[in-house]
Amino acid sequence: MRKIRFILIMLTVCALSGGCVHKVLTDAGDEPGSDGPGPVGPGAGGKALVLFDWSEAGGNPSPDRVTLLCYPLSAPGTPGLAYLPMEGGELEITPGRYDMVSFTAEPPADLTPEGLLLTTESVDILSPLGLTSSSAGDEPVVAAPQRVWYGRNRGFTAGDDPDRTDTCPIPMRDAFIVLHVLYPHVLHSERIEAASVALSGMGAGFMPAAGEVSALRATIPFAATAAEGRVSAETPAFGHCPDGEPCRHELSLFLKLAGGELKRVRSDVSAQMQAQRGQKDVYITIDELISPEMGVDFSIDTDGGIAPMQPGDNQDVS
Questions:
Q1: How far apart, in whole angstroms, are the C-alpha atoms of residue 107 and residue 154?
Q2: Does the pLDDT of residue 37 top 50, yes or no?
Q3: 260 close to 299: Cβ distance less than 8 angstroms
Q4: Which end of the chain has fewer CB within 10 Å, C or N?
Q5: How many secondary structure helices (H) and strands (E) does the chain include?
Q6: What average pLDDT does range 75-92 have in this prediction?
Q7: Does the pLDDT at position 35 exceed 50?
Q8: pTM to 2 decimals?
Q9: What count of other Cβ atoms lies within 10 Å of the Cβ of residue 37?
């Protein structure tokens, strides 16, 4: 999966001297160059100084670069694309009004505002146990994203005075939440060789132009740690209950025991998730006593999916 990192804070307006990095927009889909063609580029007649504001961004962002898309509003057409350093930079841009959208990830293939969707790749579920996405039922299984940030400036106007540079501030925000999972009461944790969890009902992507998590739901797997009577796990995610309606969230705990047994414990955590909708940090705690021996036995079939070994596979044994 792609790693997508980034931060920025503009300490000065880096004025129009040598402090700013000068970038040129190109046609969407092309790498920016020194003389990119398209709706914006050298000699376009206007200038914009893009300033990213990271004061409200969480998670210690430190991006290598930020992707910027400029959607023309005066005469709709192909958006301009630029890669800027974390502090922003100066652009040559055709005079007019624009929706400016930025994010700390590589741009997807579809750059229309409706199709601008940041996603991760489909992955095998719970790699420590060798399980594949066929284990997750109806939902697709996608990799948990790394931290992504995005920003927007709607209706930015670039003037036609070649001697003037218009400032375009873009506040950056989190496009992710952080899940914190805890099983605080686990018997015989010393028998656990590997552990991981999977959570259903999560957003499969994020739409930076809209500032919303996508409506498609997915299951995301992530690694867990078992020690001293506890199992814990933490991961970023794009969000949950993306359509604004309560949805079901099932948390699965997968364990590999010292004797080679594979166990699964499933818990309905919908109420905990829905109670924390809109929170940047979501805490899921399973307070029941968990004994690895009580988990549902399973094996891995030839396709890498779960093959139940005993009745009651759908039973919540947490």
A1: 19
A2: no
A3: no
A4: N
A5: 1, 21
A6: 88
A7: no
A8: 0.78
A9: 12
305 close to 135: Cβ distance less than 8 angstroms? yes
Say what the alpha-carbon torsion angle 125, 128, 129, 135 is, to the nearest 10 degrees.
0
d(CA 165, CA 52): 16
Strand ranges of the sheet holding 296-300, from the earlier edge strand across to the other edge: 281-285, 177-183, 230-237, 217-227, 192-203, 250-257, 262-268, 296-300, 306-308
Q: What are the strands, taking DSSP E only, across 11-95?
A: 22-24, 26-27, 46-53, 66-72, 80-84, 89-93
* 153: enclosing H helix or E strand: strand 149-158
Quick count: other Cβ atoms within 10 Å of Cβ 17? Answer: 6
Would you say residue 141 has pLDDT above 50?
A: yes
Place of tokens 């997807």: 108
pLDDT score of 131: 56
Q: What is the pLDDT of residues 9-19, one digit of tens each?
A: 222 223 223 33
Q: What is the pLDDT of residue 176?
A: 94
Q: Which residue do the tokens 């739409």 mark?
A: 207
Q: Which residue type occupies 299?
A: S
Rg (CA), the chain: 23
pLDDT of the residue at 130: 55
Distance CA 162, CA 44 (A): 9
